[in-house]
Specification:
The protein is mainly alpha-helical. The protein has helices at residues 7-27, 32-36, 42-46, 48-56, 91-114, and strands at 118-120, 126-128. Strands 1-2 form a two-stranded antiparallel sheet.
Length: 130
């Protein structure tokens, strides 16, 4: 999206990278149905749910990113931004959002794979190993 100057789409997709990454991490400790209640709310996923997990599962404290989306447009209007008019986000905002999403993903997902907590199947979906 960045290479094609599709700033709005880049921000939109970066938001889903962060959302899905946090949900995979949250699912390591709580039931999938409980995870679903957070919907698309990145602030809730990153805020209250992570704080609860830190208390219940202290081992996760070192794995959870604190306010990693702050300072980027990733905290703004997710997922409603898919309906926004084009031209809302600029190149700088889109680049920062994509870079931050990549950082969050790369901090969390490879570690879960290496630890054997999740695996990637041939269909490019993941399986959770509890």
């Amino acid at each position: 999206m960045l290479a094609r100057h599709r700033w709005d789409n880049a921000v939109y997709l970066a938001g889903y990278v962060v959302e899905c990454t946090f949900k995979v991490l949250v699912e390591q400790c709580i039931d999938n149905k409980d995870c679903q209640k957070f919907g698309h709310n990145l602030t809730e996923l990153e805020g209250q749910s992570i704080e609860r997990l830190r208390i219940i599962y202290p081992i996760l404290d070192s794995q959870l990113s604190i306010s990693r989306t702050n300072g980027t447009v990733l905290t703004d209007y997710h997922p409603q931004r898919r309906y926004f008019r084009s031209g809302l986000w600029n190149e700088k905002q889109a680049t920062e959002a994509v870079e931050r999403a990549a950082e969050i993903y790369n901090e969390i997902i490879p570690r879960l794979i290496l630890d054997g907590r999740i695996s990637i199947s041939n269909s490019h979906s993941y399986e959770v190993h509890l």
